[in-house]
Protein: Apo-citrate lyase phosphoribosyl-dephospho-CoA transferase
Organism: bioreactor metagenome
Amino acid sequence: MKIEHCKKEIKDYYINCKEEEGFNKLLYAREERADLIRNLSEKYKKTIICIRANYPGLYKINEESIKIVSILLDEAKEAFKEYITYDLYNITYEGPIAILIIDKPSKEVKKRAVKIEELHPLGRLADIDVYDELGIGISREEVQIARRRCFLCENEAHSCVRSKAHSLEEIKHYINKIVEGYIKE
């Protein structure tokens, strides 16, 4: 299915659905992604990278999230070009998702993924999750790297998400501004 058709289908769904239905679709998409990562892990037994935009709210299919994931996918492909054995880009109710299978130790990959998150202008707007050859997620703590900071206030990001410290509109405005500024450069 072409991306434009998929985006329209998902957008039409969100326009016509109740919030609870949209939330259920989002949860189902997350479960599908977890199943995919588990299946790829069992099949390839190599390190897996999953890139997703940190876009708030239920409707995650938009130009900003697509640009974030596409640009960071290109960055990851460049960083791991000689080690990539599989790649996938898909649009789901969870937003754009990019998956790479890397023939390199997971902790080395995690360290490089964190560098992309921290040093690329769009890096803080995405999660670049790394899974080992058993499909187990590698945390920043496992590679002695501090937890992520909120891009709005620099507190621990997880705390801001949990406490809903910032409004959806405030976060979306910030993301849109950063993406727009990056594209103009």
Summary: The radius of gyration is 16 Å.
